[in-house]
Each structure stands twice: as structure tokens, then as C-alpha cells.
Write a structure and sequence with these properties.
Layout lengths: L10 E7 L4 E18 L6 E2 L12 E8 L9 H10 L4 E2 L4 E2 L2 E5 L14 H10 L18 E2 L9 E2 L2 E7 L5 E9 L3 E3 L6 E3 L2 E2 L4 E2 L25 E8 L5 H18 E2 L9 E6 L16 H25 L10 H4 L2
Helix pairs in contact: 1-2, 3-4
Length: 338
């Protein structure tokens, strides 16, 4: 199936702990990729996002991870660093090569064993697994194994989500890939037809009950949880393209890509979500009809890639909630379609 590894220079790996219901996903770019990021949610858990801002010095990134474990999961990044260091990959500082590894976490401590968090060894295994591109790349894999959505009405109504992995090709042959882990406070909709796919769901009434649900009665019997669970939600992901982009252009595409979340998740960017998207440019597209890296002709290209990124994010979010299965008794989309 099409996925982010369709982008030349990108590898994707996962490791999962099905018993403790947590996992780790890594996007590797060992040759280095120009990178940037955008944090739009109010409760993020991230690493190296400041470094990826346009005005900061380092331009090349060697890996981006998406992981469960909440803030505990950030510690697992050292496994990616160890793997890359062993391969001689990193920023050459003159005395050592330092791998630049960015990433973000989701909160999954309330679905499985709260003492179970992704470890550096799990991260290292995910890197090793990236060497084999035949592994499953959507649904209950990697960081998606503990993802859920639809928690605005309370955790008892949430539904299972997961990880989505898609890619798109532009007319001139540029590839845009995207992997998303969807652990949103809000509900998920298909923007093509407005159909709700996942979210707050009442098993007794067999219907969606969130404030955006299409089948709400005039007097809904459910009220919003007040306040929602703080910091237990986020949608995180990585966009990659083989087009050669500057750091500033990657940042603009990261901003545009957030439109894909706005299309599919209601609400998003809340004070209780940590919505974060990274953008990587490998520069390995070998076509001859792309404008040079400076000048006004670049703006249409950046807009075109940004629009593709929005579409890829939307598609990956949809795949995340339609390709997953029930875990720990939490209902999945596949259960209500039977």
C-alpha cells in the first residue's frame, strides 16, 4: 500500500507492546533531510521542535519519532540516537557525529498498563524494523496501538484509533507521504461526505453522541465532560517529500498541513491536545521541472506541496480510525460496521 516510504530517502519502523498497549514509530532519513515542525495544540510533548524553527541553526534532521508513554516516552528517543550513531549518521561537529532526532508523544497510559512505556530498546528495535518495509504500517501498530479518539464526552465513550500511513504523487512526479497517530480529544469525520467515522459513542444507544454528531436529538442526554481530561490527547505525525525545500518552505507546508486535521477532527488544536506535525524534505526528486530554490516561482510549488500535505493528513487520519481494531474493550470502527 502507498505510504511514507514511497518518498525516496525515507524509512519507517515500528515496535509494539501488545500487553502493555503502547508502542513506538520512527521515520528515518539517514542521509539527512531538511526539516521543520508546527505545534498547534495546547498540551504537547515534544523533542527538538525549537531546533526545527526556521530561524534556528541546524537544518538537517536524521529521524523523527512518534511514541506512546506520554512524557515518559521522550526517553525512548535515545534508542534512535544510539542506532544512528552506530551507523555513523549525524551532524558532523568536528569531534563527533551527533544524530538530530525530533519527535512527539501521545498519552496512552490509561488504555493498557500505566507502568508500560516505550523504552530506548523498543526505539532501537523500531529502527531495525525499518530495514524491512514489508511490516504492517497502519492501524494498531507502533505508536498507534494505544491511540483513541472521542474523549470530549468522557473516556467511557471513546473509540479506538490508530496509525495511518499514506502517500500522494503530484503531476510532476513529486511524492508526498504522511504518517499520523490519531489520539484526539475530538471526533473524526470524512471531509468528502461529512460522515462521522469515529468519536464519542454510546454503546447502549448505538450512536455517536459528541457535540458534532449528526444524529443528536434536540435534547441530547449527554453533557460535555467538564473539564475534559487534561493532556491526554494529541494527534501527531510526519510529512515527507522528495522535493528539495528550504527550512522556511518546510515550515510553511507544516502550517498548511494542519488544515488536514481541521478537516477531519472536531474539535482540534484544543488546550487539551498536543497536535504536532513535522515536515521532512529529502531532496531526492530528480525531475527537471521544479523552480530553483529561490525566487517567486517557488511559491506555487510550495502551495502545491502544501495542498497535497493537507490531503495526505486527512487521508492518514481516516485510515487511522478505519484500519484499527478493538483493544482493551474499547470499541473500534470495525465493530460498529458489522
Amino acid at each position: 500500500m502507498p505510504g511514507i516510504t514511497d518518498v525516496s530517502g525515507i524509512r519507517l519502523g515500528h515496535s509494539s507492546d501488545g500487553q502493555k498497549v503502547t508502542g513506538f514509530t520512527v521515520v528515518l532519513c539517514e542521509k539527512g533531510a531538511t526539516g521543520s515542525a508546527i505545534v498547534a495544540g495546547g498540551a504537547p510533548g515534544t523533542r527538538e521542535t525549537d531546533l526545527m524553527r526556521p530561524s534556528f541553526t541546524v537544518n538537517q534532521v536524521h529521524g523523527v519519532f512518534l511514541t506512546g508513554g506520554s512524557a515518559f516516552g521522550l526517553n525512548a528517543a535515545s534508542g534512535v540516537v544510539r542506532y544512528l550513531e552506530e551507523k555513523g549518521v549525524g551532524l558532523d561537529t568536528g569531534v563527533a557525529k551527533v544524530p538530530i532526532v525530533a519527535g512527539a508523544v501521545i498519552f496512552d497510559l490509561d488504555i493498557g498498563d500505566p507502568s508500560g512505556r516505550p523504552t530506548p530498546d523498543m526505539a532501537y528495535i523500531a529502527c531495525v524494523n525499518s530495514e524491512d518495509d514489508c511490516a504492517p504500517s497502519s492501524g494498531n501498530v507502533g505508536a498507534g496501538i494505544g491511540a483513541t479518539v472521542g474523549k470530549l464526552m468522557g473516556p467511557e465513550y471513546r473509540m479506538k484509533s490508530g496509525l495511518g500511513d499514506v502517500s500522494l504523487s503530484l503531476p510532476q512526479g513529486i511524492t508526498v507521504g504522511c504518517v499520523m497517530v490519531v489520539n484526539a480529544l475530538g471526533d473524526v469525520f470524512d471531509p468528502r461526505n461529512g460522515r462521522q467515522l469515529a468519536g464519542a459513542y454510546d454503546r447502549q444507544a448505538n450512536k455517536f453522541i459528541g457535540p458534532f454528531a449528526q444524529d443528536l436529538s434536540d435534547s441530547p442526554s449527554h453533557e460535555l465532560e467538564s473539564p475534559p481530561p487534561f493532556g491526554r490527547n494529541t494527534t501527531i505525525g510526519v510529512i515527507a517529500t522528495d522535493a528539495a525545500l528550504t527550512k522556511e518552505e518546510c515550515h510553511r507546508i507544516a502550517i498548511m498541513s494542519m488544515g488536514g486535521l481541521a478537516r477531519t477532527i472536531r474539535p482540534c488544536f484544543t488546550p487539551f491536545d498536543g497536535d504536532t506535525i513535522f515536515v521532512l524534505s529529502t531532496g531526492e526528486y530528480d525531475g527537471d521541472n521544479v523552480p530553483p530554490s529561490s525566487g517567486e516561482l517557488r511559491a506555487p510549488l510550495v502551495a502545491q506541496i502544501g495542498m497535497a500535505a493537507q490531503e495526505a493528513v486527512s487521508a492518514a487520519v481516516i485510515q487511522a480510525v478505519t484500519s484499527c481494531q478493538s483493544v482493551a474493550g474499547i470499541l473500534a470502527r470495525s465493530d460498529i460496521e458489522r
